[in-house]
Design goal:
heterodimer, A: D-Maltodextrin-Binding Protein, domain 2, D-Maltodextrin-Binding Protein, domain 2, 12-stranded mixed β-sheet, about 40% helix
Chain lengths: ~350, ~525
Amino acid sequence: MAVLGASFVRHAKDEPMKTAAALAALLAAPALAQEKPVLTVLTYDSLLSEWGPGPVIEQAFEADCACDLRLVAAGDGAALLAQLRLEGEGTEADVVLGLDSNLVAAARASGLFAPHAGTAPLDLPVAWSDDTFVPFDWGWFALVGRADGPAPTDFRALAASDASLVIQDPRSSTPGLGLVLWLHAAYGAEAPAIWEALSDNIVTVTPGWTEAYNLFLEGEADLVLSYTTSPAYHLLAENDATIRALPFAEGHYLQVEVAAKVASTDQPDLADRFLAALLTEPVQSAIPTTNWMYPAVTPATGLPEGFESLRPATTLYLPPEEAEAARAPAVEAWRTALSR
Amino acid sequence: MAPRPLPMALRRAGQGTRARTGPPRRPGTLAALLVAALCLGPLVPLLLRSGEGGLGAADAAALRFTLLQAALSAGLSVALAIPVARALARRRFPGRGALITLLGAPFLLPVLVAVMGLLALFGRNGLLNAALAALGLPPVSIYGLHGVVLAHLFLNLPLATRLLLQGWLDVPAERFRLAAALNAPVWALIERPMLARTVPGAFATIFALCLTSFSVALILGGGPAATTLELAIYQAIRFEADFPTAARLALLQYALCGAAALLALRLAPGAMGQGGPGRAVQRWDAKGRAADALWIALAALFLLLPLGLAGWRGLAGLPDLPPEAGPAALRSLGVALAASALTLLLALALALHGGRLAQLAGALPLAASSLVLGTGLLLILRPLTTPATLALPVTALLDALAALPFALRSLAPAIAEIESRHGRLADSLNLTGPSRLRRLTLPLARPALGFAGGLAAALSVGNLGVIALFAGEDQTTLPLLMARLMGAYRMDAAAGVGLLIAAMALLLFWILDRMGRADAAP
């Protein structure tokens, strides 16, 4: 991302000289002077969707940072890491928001992230101590379908059925990666065979969660890979009780979403303040009904209706190092099974 | 301002002094070297970075899928083009000329707009599934191999039809008359041998085009089972930042496209030429009238329905145009104009050179797909700067290269004609260098320059390729914006952007082509 583009994006909103500004950007004119410092946060698409937590985060942080928070969407969570590795030290990003526990080890090994300045006490269902990656929410993956649609109770039953399914690519999407590790954790060496059996159920593989969920909502498939908490969105925001998460007998894989400071940032202090702000009450209390995930710090008001009942009986989870060891072979097995 | 034909006396006067000057050749040598460096240079980092590892099972599957879809697309396009071309060749009906002109349109039509039209027809909420639902039948899905082949069929059936139609029109009319007089079988004696000569070239041309399919597979592919090599290169870089795998895939793709381009050039010289076959072949065998009408109607429906739907949905989607569309349109326009100018510069230099070296350089981009070159350039540039900062210049550069073979094919004959008619005179007048260009070449080559420039600009505006590899959020062009909107299933907004792209492509072509024709008459 060029700083030129950045200034253009902002000015195009409130100045009538759109054309001139765009031409200036095209001709690579020097960057316009910034009055306030800018903190660029690279994040995934759905965080910035109409109903996502983007505006809440922006409001909460800009209230007292005397800065301009620039949230930039760049695909789904796993693609964020690829983008940062692609851009290397030249990246404009100061913070990456939206990697997850399964990518933490790879992200650390890239050397592109710097330690944080400490976190508030966390309410996670797993032990977490990490000097670099700050959890901001968490949840369990689940297959989501309609009340009048097919409802298999485990992956074998799903594979044997003719229910159609949309999933995400594990190379670009954290839910996609979560599903691959879910099957790995549940079935181990048998996972490739399960994938092969599932391959005729999978209508399409999308790069990110947003695309897959939209396809599901448009009726392209019976089921979509999402979260146990997704039905809460339809219930609370749309008063629609027909969307449900399928409880699976194998248990449900847990995802912890994290943010981290980019090592090459020119705003290290602002980045630390941003990471701290993520765990404050205004953001954390908005997480359940905007990002539709469990907050990393349970707000004083508690969780909204339905969140407690959506907890699965069995949790599957690979800590970062184990997830990293399993990731490459599991993804390759997925690609191989689905490319037949 | 074109020079008037000169008096005969002057022409004769020129004949004695055979000039050693001729048109300027040095810019052509430079252009050829530049094109060669751009097309072959990226091989170096690809070879250096490809490392030891081989291809995984899924990469091999991408290779198989690439070959399979290209073979199916080319085979079906040519097979269906045979009855359509035959019907067009032997029937005269109102609107025939318009239909043949329309067959040239998909070459300029942005691929994503075509895909949008096909989704409106065959997609989950498309007309076909609505009809199936009304009949109580289960819906069909457009994702996967059949969707990719369907889109390629839509894009290439017109090209195949034009190529084969040319074959029919190249048969001397006397042969049909003779066959009729002798009551001999036209199919066995004339048509089958003609097809045996033309079909391999048409197949090879379309096969080569489909090998580099990126946007179609991106939108309609749907998973590892339907991934082309181009898409796999993109995924290796944008999903995994896995440069060695991307380099290996790119080398494989380079070899594949190189072989296919060689084959296509050998089997179908000048297959991509323009030229409108206007006349219908006069025929004496009146059989098959109904079948011909059916083929023409089906082909027209298959082409017009998706186009109409894309246009209709585009109009409906205009109010949903996202705010990013304005800046994206400006970027696309800038890239297209830059690409067009660069294409013209290179094509003109190569055409003036006219030698073996220039021909070779003009064909080289056919072997080098934009994602392959993009990967190589990315590997070179990445240590120096952030890829996004160079996204637009690199896109313009590679778009210019991609259009070069087509531009050269329209410009080279025009320049050769000018030189053969006026070259000696110019030599005798010692008209060399820039002044020869200004007074002789440019004015007379203007129509060809306008056509080639329009073609390059239109192709660039609609092209989604290397920009997807390099761009950050702030370098989004119209095709990239449209692909993202389609991916996010914001179809109304995507259709609006698609209409904008198609309108820009056609307008750019029309304006530049017209600028070439205006007062070009001698």
